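Worked example

This section walks through a single chain of length 381. The input is the sequence exactly as stored; nothing has been trimmed or padded.
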Amino acid sequence: MSGPLLQQLGVAPYRQRFPWLGGDLQTLRDTLRPMALPPDQGQPLQIAVPALASGAAAAGQLLAFLDRPTPFASSQPPKGLVLLLHGLGGSSRREGLRRLGLALQASGFAVLRLNLRGADPGRHLAGGTYAAACNSDLLPALIRARELASDLAAAAGSQRPLPLFGAGLSLGGTMLLNAALAIPGLLDGLFCASSPLDLAACSASIERPRNRVYQRWLLQRLVRQTLADPFGVREQERQQLEAMARGEQAATIRAFDAAITAPRWNFASVQAYYRGASPLPRLLEPSRRSLLPPTLLLQALDDPWVPAAAAQQLQSALQVSDGAVATEGPVSVVLTRQGGHNGFHGRGDGRCNGLEPGCWSDRLALAWFGQLRVNAGVCGG
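Given that input, the structure is written out below as C-alpha cells.
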C-alpha cells in the first residue's frame, strides 16, 4: 500500500518482517525481545500543573526529560523540539517512546519526554491520574515546551525559536489531538501512532475475549499506578480498585474509567467521558480539523487494541485519497495492512540514520517532521 505522501516523504511502504508476523506479534515484539538502549541521560524538568477541576487531586508537577541532539553541537540550534507523549500505562522510560526519541536526537532534534499525571517516574510529584482529554495538564507543558524551544535556539545564537512538534504513541496521540483541537496554535506539527479516535470502540475492542491477556496487563498497571498515589486515594476508589484486583468487580478498562477516570476529570459518566474525549467527531468537521497544525495519523488495520474503523471513517471524509494515504488540509491519514499496536517493525529496521535504533513508524515520524521543518509557511524553517 502506498500513496503520494509516502513518496513525497521518501519513505518506502510498510512491510512487516519475519518473525514478527501479524498484529499480535508486532504489538508484543518490544516485550518479547527488548532492544538494548543506551542509559537515559535526559535532563529532568518539573512543570507545574493546576488542581483537577473535580477536586480529585491538588496542584502538583509533571516530570519531563529534555534530550539534546546527539552529537550535541552548542554552536548550532536543534532542528526543532519534539514533545513525546506516552500511552496508557506507559511512561517516558518505555522502550517505544525512548526509541523514537533516540531516532529524533540522532537526526538533530531536541526531545522533551513528558510523564503524565500519575505516571512513573513522576508519580510522587502529582496526585491523581491522567485521561484522554487532560488539557489543563497539557497546556502548561506545551507552554513550557515553547519556552524551551526559544531557549535552545537562543543558546545557539539564533533569533528564531525552534518549531515545536508533538508526537504521541497510542493514547498520548489522542491527548495531543484533543489539546490541539481545543487550543489552536499550540503545536507546529503533530504525529500520532496507533492513537484511539473513538474511545468507546477501543474499550469494546479491548474487552473482546481474544484480548483478555492484554486487558489484564493494562488494568494491573493502572490499578497499581493509582493505588501508589502518595497523595492518597479516596476510600470509595480504593474499595473499587481492590475489588477489581480480587475479581469481585468487573475488571475491565471501562470499569476503571467509570470508577476513576471519568469522575476525576469531571465527566458525569464513563459514557460522557468516552464521548467528550474522543476526537473523531471534531476531526470529521472540516471547520474543526482545519484548526489543527499539519497532522499525520498512522494506523494499522490489524491493530488488536485500537479498531481501524475510526481512522478509515476519517480517511473517507478527507477529500484527497490514494490507497493507504488520505489527506485534506492539515490532516493526513496513513493506513497499513499490518503493524499491530505501536509495532510497525518492518524491513529495513535496525539503526535509524546509521546511529540509533528505529522502526518504520520512527522513520515515518522523522520524515514528517523533517518535511514540516523546511516547508515554507508551515514552521518558518
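What to look for: The domain at 4-204+278-374 is CATH 3.40.50.1820 (Rossmann fold).
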